[in-house]
Amino acid sequence: MSIVLTSSDFGLEGVMAISPANVLILRGRHRRNALLAGTVVCAMLAHQCGLVRDHPPVVHVNTTTVGQTRWWRRRPAQPQQSSKKVPINFMEAEPSLERAKARWAQTLEWRAEEGVDAILSEPNAVFHALKAHYPHYLHLSDKEGHLTYWEFPGRLNVSALKELRINSKVGLRHYIWHTEYTWQVASPKEGAQAMVLFDALGLGWDQLSFELLDLIKKIVTFTNQHYPHRAARIVVLNTPQWYHALYGIIKPIMSDVCDAKLVFLSSEEVKGGALLRWIDKNNLPIEYGGRSKIAVGDSKYERAMRGYIDKINRRAGVQAIQPLK
After folding, report:
1. What is the spatial distance between Cα 245 and Cα 268, in angstroms, rounded to a whole number?
2. Rounded to whole angstroms, how far apart are CA atoms 181 and 188?
3. Phi, then psi, of 240 in degrees rounded to 5
4. How many other CB atoms sit within 10 Å of the CB of residue 156?
5. What pLDDT was estimated at residue 41?
6. Pairing of the two strands 147-151 and 262-264
7. What parts of the chain have a pLDDT lower than 50?
8. Residue-wise pLDDT tens digits, 3-34
9. How far apart are CA 257 and CA 77, in angstroms?
10. For the chain, where are the alpha helices, taking DSSP H only?
């Protein structure tokens, strides 16, 4: 079996091959899950870190042959004079002012073509259904004042989304809406970042589908280009032991910036309170080692977001699609 992902899928340079020789510790179902996890992790890293791409790369995931891995590293950024015309996130993400300006110009063109500046005034009928069947939430801040953003890929319900006819095009529009809300309403300060947490508990082969890969591809493309330098830290929670072996395989195609931001925590480490290093006990839910009784998904940011979109939908006369029971 082979999964071939082009440069437009994940924005990663190099060739990654996962073969029996590379994953000897993985057997049967675990090997399949490793492939899924590899796909998801590559997408997460490209999506959150804003990788620089100078040449059109190809990423191959192959279970039968061992390929060559080309090393890729991001150029160190040089100090630049400040510019009021280019957002600080773009300045931080690029090694030169010229490249930052060019990237920002492309983003302005994209925003105009997609109507992004007005997206928060649009109704979003799938909001509640997507939140329920692929949980993703803004939550209380970390110790540095960054919002925390949580995703639960192991809770993805592909069959429910299909039954509700929520396709990748609709999902992408929702994701742009959600991203804009995060940086325009919830955390509007220039240069703001978030601590990103992915809970891998329950992640399995059942979540993988062509529709999901298509959505990941589109999300990675627009976030990588148009929302750079937004992740202060990326923590993958409840990772099984074989995840670390997989990380060793994908590490060569990661930038130094991503590598420095990424943390893997096992279930034992999560239960032991490892997240308290970055999140105060009063802001961390009990099930993750803290003392907060506010569940992820029920923070003041999520309640405000629900109220915001419900008001927009009512004004537009749009009936929200409700999650399946």
Report:
1. 18
2. 9
3. -70, 170
4. 23
5. 54
6. unpaired
7. 1-30, 50-83
8. 333 333 333 322 223 333 333 333 444 455 55
9. 11
10. 7-10, 29-49, 88-93, 97-114, 127-133, 158-163, 168-181, 210-226, 242-250, 256-261, 267-271, 300-316
